[in-house]
Amino acid sequence: MFLFGIIICLLYTPLFGVATPFTNRSLSAVPFTLPRPSQNPFANGIPTAPRVCNDLFNMSIACQLALKEHDNGLIAFGGGRLMFQDKSCSTVQKEGIGKAAWDAYTLSVSASKPPITGAQMAVWRTYVGPDYSEQQDRMLNNLKRVSDFRHSKKFDIIVTCNDPRHQCPIKVGDKQVGGYGWTYRGWMGQYHNIALCKSFFTVPDLEEKTEFIEEQIQNGNTKYAQEAIWQKNMGQYFLHEMMHLDSVGKPHVKDELVKTGRNGGTRSAYGPRNVYQLAQGDLESGGGAARSSTNADTYAWLANCLYFFEVTKVFPKPPRHEQKDEETPIMISLGDVRENVTNEELRNRMSSVGW
Q1: Of 20, 117, 262, 324, which is most buried with the most CB atoms under 10 A?
Q2: Quick check: 103 and 236 in contact, CB under 8 A?
Q3: Where are the domains of the chain?
């Protein structure tokens, strides 16, 4: 009987932390080491898209031809190129986007590996669902399409700091719009575009956020390591927008809705609280990993929490239901766009995002 007890302890002790993932671990004052990939694909800067690509909602044949011939761009994100729209971003904004892209790449690399430790499984179970293993392979493949940039060219992304369809001033509930993405369906293929609003550049980058949390822990304050909501960063936001692209998310990754509990209302599954609610929902009522696997912010928060759990050794728990979710701004997907799309149609798409 004594021997049987020892065997049980050896087999199951590693899983005890998974059952109660919110339990804190002891912290040391040793400076954090960022688990960065060995190579930054954006170290030499991000190139500019052809000048004729001046209307990303109605991309001309000249633009499409120029993109096809523009073969000296930076190879990144699934073998494609990340480019700026000509003269749309300031030098400071370009630097910020370069950091955001590097951070999104870092997070995707961190999250595209199968969970093998109790800590990693706890994050998946919390933010994807108790049945995460049923969708794990599909989600990992989606994340790998972001991180595996060495393969042959698959798609391009053009980033603009203009607000071409005046969506940035719009608020979704009490949330500011940090940016919006769309896929233009042209005669020669599909083209992915992301517009970043001024509020996007108010979010710290991954290194700034990590250094802040490290400083707080060394001062004896573990609040910011324990609560996922304080760990938002530009890379996570950029990764969210990447997941909406059809060349990345298969099947299409959208913004799923969760119930608000108020008169049958719904809101988009943004932020760790709503991502957690979606993951833990009753499977027969549309919760769990199946819907989590088609929710963009699930990927963003899964990757972010895996990263910070590895760095801090503290589980980043979602906010309690009674806590107000302070996450702002949010990223919006406008979906597929064809030539001559109207502002009214885009406003209708924006208004369909519940909060």
Answers
A1: 117
A2: yes
A3: 40-351
The domain made up of 40-351 is a member of CATH 3.40.390.10:
yes
* Distant-in-sequence, close-in-space partners of 13: CB < 8 Å, separation ≥ 6: none
Strand partners, 332: 180
Taking the CA atoms of 227, 229, 230 and 236 in sequence, report the sign of the dihedral they define. Answer: positive
3-class secondary-structure state, position 227: strand
Radius of gyration of the chain (CA): 21
Q: What is the pTM of this model?
A: 0.85
161: Cβ–Cβ under 8 A, 6 or more apart, which residues? 84, 85, 88, 89, 90, 93, 97, 195, 196
Q: How far apart are CA 88 and CA 94, in angstroms?
A: 9
pLDDT digits (tens, 9 = 90+) for 274-321: 999 999 987 766 679 999 999 999 999 999 999 999 999 999 999 976
Sequence letter at residue 293: S
